[in-house]
Every structure is written in structure tokens, then in C-alpha cells.
Design goal:
eight-stranded antiparallel beta sheet, 2 helices
């Protein structure tokens, strides 16, 4: 039987970066049919909540632990956002160049890419695709300040809550992560062609069951 080895060569893995953000506004059918590039996306902080333990006692001992439902939330930070996100941020166009606030907020999906690195290949080791479904953005403050001798660009920030979508044979989910160090190059390429568009078909966000169908079809040859 082999001996455990810590921090072996090639096993010192880390994650960093946020790039290739894509916004998908949800349609009335519950799909995400049209993706638009989110330039200026500077960070996504995933913040799961719930899964809290409630202990139950019987016969003077702890009988069992009950877990509350786990929920997925996030904070999105960016220097700017696509025009299509205005509807997700509670804005509506009254007239060209005139926006109303405090309007209905549209549900959206989001995809973004993070880097997976290690001690051998650095940041070329791999990457992960993160897919988020059923997201609603809460209003957050915008801190405008005078320009001075140390100017900074305004950073927009939104707190996001989600509603999970169905997945066959699993509990509903609001997030999927696809790891290029485990999925094949062909599987990643097939999925990215849908997420980002391929020149012939517009970018869109496939639901979890379709994600499995896409990668399974590639794996089956």
C-alpha cells in the first residue's frame, strides 16, 4: 500500500482570476436564449448559505442532525455592465437616453471563467467554467466621488440570490462548475461553443440537463 505524499510535484494546485463573463437574461419560458459579453467584470464572490444543522434529541442523547436547505448566492463586481443588464438591475428605458429606476428586475444567468494553476504549468494548467442560473440582483449603493489626485474608477457591485433549476436524478441547483483538468478538451470546446456562440449560432446558456447531454455526446464519440 502506498504512502501518502503531501505537496507533490504537480499537485500544488490553486485557483485565480475571473474572465469571459457572459450575461444571459432569462426568457419567459425559463430558458437563457441569448448571451452577451460582460466586459469589465472584475470579480464574482460565490456565497453559499444554509445547510445549517438543527440537532434533535431523544432519550437524553443527540438523536440526529437535520440540515436546512442550502442556497447559492454571489456578489458580482464590475467596472461596467452590458446594456441588457439594466433590466436585471431594475431599470427601464423611458426614452432614448432616459432610464427609470425601481422597476421590475429580470432574472438572469451568468457564466464566467477562472484559472486553475499548479506548480509545474502555472496558470496554463487549466481552467473552470462557472454557470449560474435563476439569479436576481439586489440593489446596491453606487459611491460616486470627486476626481482627485488619486482617481479611481467606480466599481459596481450587486448581491445576487438564486432560484435552483431542475436536474434529473439530483436535487435542483443554481450553479455548475466544469473543470478542464478533468473534462476532455473536446467536451470543453463543445460546451464553450454554446456558451460563447460559434459564429453561426448565438451564445446561450444551456440548462443543467442539456450540459450533461452535450458532454456525454462528445464523450460517446
Amino acid at each position: 500500500m502506498s504512502t501518502l505524499v503531501w505537496d507533490g510535484t504537480g499537485n500544488r494546485v490553486y485557483e485565480t482570476g475571473t474572465s469571459k463573463g457572459v450575461l444571459y437574461v432569462q426568457s419567459s419560458e425559463g430558458t437563457y436564449p441569448l448571451g452577451v459579453a460582460w466586459s469589465g467584470l472584475s470579480g464574482v464572490t460565490e456565497s453559499p448559505s444554509g445547510a445549517e444543522v438543527t440537532p434533535m434529541y431523544a432519550d437524553n442523547i443527540k438523536y440526529l442532525n437535520l440540515l436546512s436547505t442550502e442556497e447559492f448566492g454571489a456578489t458580482i463586481e464590475a467596472y461596467t455592465y452590458p446594456e441588457e443588464f439594466a433590466a436585471c438591475d431594475g431599470s427601464a428605458e423611458l426614452h432614448t437616453g432616459i432610464m427609470l429606476g425601481q422597476q421590475k428586475r429580470s432574472t438572469f444567468g451568468l457564466s464566467y471563467k477562472t484559472i486553475v494553476g499548479n506548480d509545474v504549468d502555472g496558470s496554463d494548467y487549466g481552467y473552470k467554467l462557472h454557470l449560474i442560473y435563476g439569479a436576481l440582483a439586489a440593489p446596491t449603493e453606487k459611491a460616486y466621488a470627486t476626481v482627485n489626485d488619486s482617481p479611481e474608477a467606480l466599481t459596481f457591485s450587486w448581491t445576487v440570490t438564486t432560484t435552483p433549476v431542475a436536474v434529473d436524478k439530483f436535487k435542483p441547483t443554481a450553479s455548475i462548475t466544469v473543470d478542464s483538468t478533468k473534462a476532455s478538451e473536446a467536451e470543453m470546446a463543445a460546451l464553450e461553443a454554446i456558451l460563447y456562440g460559434d459564429g453561426e449560432v448565438a451564445a446561450r446558456l444551456p440548462l443543467p440537463n442539456e450540459v450533461l447531454t452535450i458532454v456525454s455526446a462528445v464523450a460517446a464519440g
